[in-house]
Amino acid sequence: MKQVVQNYKTGELALLDVPVPGCKPGGVLVRSAYSLISTGTELMKVSEAGMSMMGKARSRPDQVAKVVQSVAANGVPATYRKVMGKLDSYTPLGYSLCGVVEQVGAGIDDVAVGDLVACAGNEHALHAELNWVPKNLYAPVPDGLTPRHAAFGTVGSIALQGVRQGESRLGEVALVIGLGLIGQLVVQLLAASGVRVVGADPDPVRCELAARLGAAACGDPSSAAVESAVAELTGGHGVDQVYLAAGGGSNQPVELAARLSRDRGRVVDIGKCRLDLPWNAYYEKELDVRFSRSYGPGRYDPEYELQGRDYPIGYVRWTERRNLACFLDLVARGGVDVEPLVSHVADFEDAVETYRSLEDGGLKAVAVLFRYPGHTAEAQAPAVSVPAVSVPAVKRPGGTAAAPGRPAGTPVRLAFVGAGNYATSMLLPHLAQRDGVELATVVTTTALSAANAQRKFGFAEATTDLDAVLGDKSIDAVFVVTRHSSHAELTRQALLAGKTVFVEKPLALTEDELAGVLAAVEESGNDRLQVGFNRRFAPLLREAKKRFGARTGPASLRYLVNAGRLAHGSWYLQQGTEGSRFAGEGGHFIDTASWLLDADPVSAYTVAASGNEDLQVVLRYPDGSTATISYVTTGAPGFPKETLDLVADGKVLRLDDFVRAAVYDGRPRRWVGSRLPKARDKGQNAELAAFVRAVRTGGPMPVPLESLVATTAATLAVQTSLAGGAPVTLARAR
Questions:
Q1: What is the mean pLDDT of the chain?
Q2: Which CATH class is domain 155-291?
Q3: Which residue(s) pair with 26 in the sheet?
Q4: Candidates 1.20.120.530, 3.20.20.10, 3.40.50.720, 3.90.180.10; correct CATH number of 2-152+301-380?
Q5: Could you tell me which residues are beta bridge partners of residue 618?
Q6: Could you give the C-alpha distances from 377 to 381, 382, 384, 503, 519, in angstroms and in order?
Q7: What is the pLDDT of residue 273?
Q8: Contact in structure between 202 and 221 (CB atoms under 8 Å)
Q9: pLDDT tens digits, residue range 351-364?
């Protein structure tokens, strides 16, 4: 098998052929799927190996002291041979991975062959194709958590143990100094615990990442921004805890910790930074300095780690294995998001080149993963199911379930569930003055927001009682315009209540949620559903598509979405509960591409730019057409949000942010849309008109349910591909 090794004397890195480890009692043999490079700890070791002998001695004074003791006891020649022999040997790298159990040793009954486990330890979770891992250094991976994310288990445990040492409490303020891999995880864990976090790091990219992941403020530790943020959040008292997650030889982190801590605050050292404590500063505030020992209790205890002797939970609540399991559970439930930390995924065979690129600065990364050969093929063909649409009801000629129309002269009665910014700015203004429409009831979770919507748009009633609305037989249609995490469940309830439903995108955030909506369609026979994919209704784009005409050959479509940055505090940033930004918005662009290409995608492949949320999504269609969606958050605010080009059969369709459009077909004169439109029209008004017409007449819904399902499944496939680093097939259910 292959393993990454290093010669500490020469600095040589190699991918070495070594024997497969035996499966001893008390542990399991694990075939690696993904292993994580700790860009702090491991690169420090790699860097030290490249130093001169004097440099090595200066960087490891603890080892020099041992050498001096050995000289006194054994003499210079014997000590020299011992030291040189140890230096001139291969040593392993790595300590955090996820893999599949290949063999189970005697005494192990909590996992079986084929189970997915996360593994820890710098002697057992190595960058190697196979590792023997003792019982207390692995934990089963929860259902639904990908191997790519489970590989963060060990570094997550280190961060978690540090937070436990800080004894953080709800409402406190913490300062995290150093926003590398461990620091970013500490920020998320603290934020998830209800602690307001200030981050400090000289790298603006890392500061921006920490802010996206939950930090209240971030800045360069040498600037006034960090001190100002601490003063504002604490009323000038100073932070309750400081977490030292920085490395290097500077004493600045320790000094900054003393300056910004409150009286009797807690300072926790997680990283390996210089600790020359300024005595007066620490004494005057009586600061409590604590060390966080790696993954938690049990670390470095051979009886715990190697012999599998657990500590009773009544005496030691959080051992290193329990910390590992806890962190995996947090990631699986969305409490911690590790995906934004993944800067690069390298094939294991490129391990040496990857280390060199990290060392020389060619690859700037927070976290780098190795993907192992046995799982590359598996990762190349994951699939997201596109559920079959089954409606056991009387069918209309158009293919949708029969629905009664409104008697002539009676208005269509609408209820809104949710009345946030989008509903009040993009939907209700178009409906409030529409003939034949009655805004019957608005439902919100807070009484005041319902009252405001009632006053502004003339709803007959305002309430917080959803059940009353769903049970009101006079309500014809329900609009679901709430936060993303509630869309699928509210849609399911409304369909079962027999209502026609308009739900803003996304329809669902998971395959299970999508299946639940379709189960409601099948159970009720009610497929009267529309998702707010409005761009296909935009007049300018519809005219451009008409001018472009029918295709005879495959097309190439490019869609640039300059999404921009979100304001701090936006609920769109709550990825653990509300999904990623693309999960929330991406359906718009997939639906537009599919409508222009007159087909549903059959595969999706996603890659992300290092260190940010910029995505490149490539969709493939049955006739060989492709659509590339560049979803970027780092563009200039003044640049248009959406630009689109469709190329096929010697023709080009160009759309500039729904302000102007053009079609080039090779003739002397091209068609150009109006250059002075009255306003940017993205199709909401036409979409609502089509929806109301379908409700009034009982005719087919504006977009077939099959198309809505396919677009939702493709949006889910984007995230699946990003997580797995490979194309995802959109498999049709039979």
A1: 87
A2: alpha beta
A3: none
A4: 3.90.180.10
A5: 605, 628
A6: 7, 9, 16, 38, 33
A7: 82
A8: yes
A9: 999 998 888 888 88
